[in-house]
Design a protein that fits this description.
Distance between the termini: 36 Å
Oligomer: single chain
CATH class: Alpha Beta
Strand content: 35-45%
Low-confidence stretches: none
Structural class: alpha+beta
Number of helices: 3
CATH topology: YaeB-like fold
Strand order of the largest sheet: 1-5-4-3-2
Order of helices and strands: EHHEEEEH
Radius of gyration: 13 Å
CATH architecture: 2-Layer Sandwich
Amino acid sequence: MTRRFRSTRKFDKQFKQLDTKTYKQAAKAIDLFISDPSHPSLRYKKIQGTSNFFEISVNMSIRIIIEVTSEDNNQINTLYIIGTHEEVFPT
């Protein structure tokens, strides 16, 4: 199975609006996720109550939500949204 990566327009817009420090941290987390999704620093885990959404940590306050689906023989990882825990998990 081949892992493929893409992002939503909303993610791209949110990513570009990050401050410089957070932008660099997020870029590093994305690169690490692509090369080693099980790296402990990402704290990669399934979002409870969903069937195909996962989260990774950029830092102590910023999360990236990823939708994982299958298409043919490919695993599609869509970078869905990025923001603080409160922004990505609204109550």
